Amino acid sequence: MQRLDRAGIEALLQTEQFKSWFAELSGLNHRLELLEAGIERAAEACAEASFRSSYWQEQAEEALLRSADLENTCHNLRIQIAQLENQAFDRLADFERVRDEVTELWVRITAIEHRCDDHPDEATRVRARARHQGELKKLRAQYAARNERKEALWHEEELLWMQVAEQTLMVPEIEVRSKRLAQRYSHLMARVEELQKREAAASEELADEREELAAVQVQLAELRAAAREWFSCVCHENFLYWPVGDDSKLALVLALVTNQTDYNIEVTSGQIYQCETERGVKYLEPIRVAGAPDEDDERLSRFFEEVA
């Protein structure tokens, strides 16, 4: 995950590669919404009393199980985050210890060099350097090795904190999905109690739409995987993330979907927001970025017409 400032993200949003990727993702998300709505309508239409009641009960139980699985995933992620943080602090302690060693070696080397150079005549200085040549060679070799180790420890520590940030950002998204699934469970159980006998009419349509939904989800997964490589960001289900400069506590966030209910503000697809890495998308702040792609873009209009 690359650190980009606001200007860097603005420049990225203007590239043809990003516009093309965003247009395709937005079109697929739009098609996904249409398919999900169509599947629910078809499922409702194709079931009679006993079948429909059992069907929606199974769906409700599945949602509850998925919600519980997601909560368990969050719990495991928090354990992993704590372990990564402990590893990062251990690397920091090692780094500081090695840095002190490097400083001490440098002081010793400098002291010997100054002692040799302090002699008044050149012949004495040459003899002094020859006398300390072996010691200086050994100290310089030790200095080079310890300095290399110091740099490696710093790199390891940075990588660990990046992993902490990535997994910390993932938790709030999963919690939102879990909450949504729990709400779905309550909704479907209420529907089961009220359903009456109805005649099945659209089972073939239902199967076709489910197959297309799976294909769209595969395409979306491929696009999100490509975003990590192309745009040097963290890409989860509904957002892209970039850390803000040297501040590991803040991230710039690009919304990939429109959602008016699950977050602290209405989230619009294609808009830039800011969040704290600790709280993630639980608390978003809007940031208006000039030139960001929107739903009026001609690319999106053409794409929507093709996939509709």
Account of the protein in words:
By secondary structure, this protein is α+β, with helices and mostly antiparallel strands. It has 6 helices and 5 strands. The longest helix is centred in the middle third of the chain and has 73 residues. The protein starts with 5 loop residues before the first helix and ends with a helix. The mean pLDDT is 82.
* CATH class category name of the largest domain: Mainly Alpha
Would you list the SSEs in sequence order as H and E? HHHHHEEEEEH
Tell me how many strands there are.
5
Helix content range: over 70%
CATH topology-level name of the largest domain: Helix Hairpins
- Structural shape: elongated
With strands numbered from the N-terminus, the spatial order across the biggest sheet is 1-2-3-4-5
For the report, how would you describe the main beta sheet? Answer: 5 strands, antiparallel
Instruction: Report, as a whole number of angstroms, the end-to-end distance.
Output: 34 Å
Whole-number total of structural domains: 2
Uncertain stretches: none
Quick gist of this model?
This protein has 308 residues and is of the alpha+beta class.
Give me some keywords for this one.
Helix Hairpins, 308 residues, 6 helices
